[in-house]
Design a protein that fits this description.
The chain has about 80 residues and is mostly helical.
Length: about 80
């Protein structure tokens, strides 16, 4: 995901949890862990979390390991 896409996700989180402002340091840590994730997957996870929890999500709630092409090809070969 790009830094601009991450910024959009932060706006969504801040809008849903206005009582909990994220510091720049926290946002940087989140970006370092989420930058290799697919933007749309993380966005869906945020949307689901907002509907289910009154608490700010953790990185582990949003992280989706990138899918490697070799794993897909191996699955298709089965």
């Amino acid at each position: 995901m790009t830094i601009d896409e991450f910024g959009e996700l932060l706006k969504m989180i801040q809008g849903a949890y206005p009582q909990r402002l994220l510091t720049r340091e926290t946002a940087n840590i989140w970006f370092q862990h989420l930058k290799n994730c697919d933007y749309h997957v993380v966005k869906r996870r945020i949307e689901a979390h907002i509907k289910e929890s009154p608490h700010l999500p953790k990185i582990s709630d949003l992280y989706e390991p990138p899918v490697e092409e070799t794993a897909i090809l191996e699955t298709m070969a089965v």
